[in-house]
Amino acid sequence: MSVIQGCRIAGAASIVAVDLNDGKLEQAKKFGATHAAKPDQLAGVQAEVCGMAGGFDYAFEAIGLPQTVRAAYDAARRGGSVIVVGAGSATSTVEFNMFELFFQERNIKGSYYGSSDVRCDFHRLLRLWKAGKLDLEGMISQKIGLDGVNDAIEAMKRGEVIRTVIEL
Q1: Do residue 160 and residue 86 come from a single domain?
Q2: SS3 for 57?
Q3: Is 12 helix (H, G, I), strand (E, B) or coil?
């Protein structure tokens, strides 16, 4: 949802959210996604949004799995950018052949906390929040005490929440 809001704030004309969970797809639209699709529907949405261009200018991966990184790479246009936001395992690998790296000219970039510079970006984010352009509260699905941590982790695994805040 953070990536979707960032794209909206940056002025993206079309934002396509992809998820397996119907509830998450509906939430994505509330945060600014113009289209929402399950992975098996992406090709149709891509054709609708990109037409003959063949792919997206930017594809963000936010899960951290090799198959979702690969799917983001495949969804980007030739010369487009793939931004890996999801924190993957140190033992997981993604495979690309040398010809596709050369021919597709896609840029692959990791994004650790949005590649932010805390000295200036946090102040900018706070200004966006105060101006009503960044919905931080809407990303909090629930607030819990320490005794609810195990249930919160299970809800996260089931895709039922965006973020859970622990209140002490």
Answers
A1: no
A2: strand
A3: coil
CB 1 within 8 A of CB 28: yes
Domain range spanning residue 57?
Answer: 2-135
Q: How far is it, in rounded angstroms, from Cα 14 to Cα 35? A: 7
For 50-73, the pLDDT digits (tens) are 887 689 999 999 989 899 999 999
Number of Cβ within 10 Å of residue 41's Cβ equals 14
* Residues in contact with 159: Cβ distance below 8 Å, sequence separation at least 6, in sequence order: 19, 20, 21, 23, 24
Same domain for 121 and 146, yes or no, is no
Same domain, 14 and 52: yes
pTM for the model stands at 0.85
